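Thread: quick sanity check before group meeting

JM: Hey all, I'm pulling together slides for Thursday and realized we never actually wrote out the predicted structure for the chain we discussed last week. Dropping the sequence here so it's in one place. If anyone has concerns about the input, flag it before I start.
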Amino acid sequence: MSGGSQLENANPVIFQRTGERLQTANDEDEDVHDPIDDREIFDILPSINDPEHPLSLEELNVVEQVRVKVNDAENMVDIEFTPTIPHCSMATLIGLSIKVKLLRSLPERFKIDVQITPGSHASEEAVNKQLADKERVAAALENSSLLEVVNQCLSNKSG
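JM (edit): ok, ran it. Output follows.
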């Protein structure tokens, strides 16, 4: 949360959360090969909090299941996220939070690509470039102040 400063989007539209996925017997059976799918990845994302509002990224429609693509066989996860406004200054932080959550949640074999939904942000190319640069992401996570903000976004305060 930005302490004391004026909100960029003071009245965001709030969306309903997706319900929990029903577990099947095969989901619980360790002997059944269960590839990771779009919904399983999406289920990780709703707990991420917006850095500016006391709401989740799902409630603000920043993340949607239709914008999650997984190829388990090729170890690829592609996520697009949509900031609530085209000039959102928190876009890189939101993308970094999504990337960190997935890095912490998924097996190391996955390559995780997080990008802004095409056409939804004024600085889309610059933000995508930052999020795709491994060195920049690593450097950002070495910054204790930035890591603290990311960890606040990842805390379970709005569940």
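AS: nice. The two ends are 17 Å apart (CA to CA). DSSP finds six helices and three strands in the chain.
JM: adding both to the slides.
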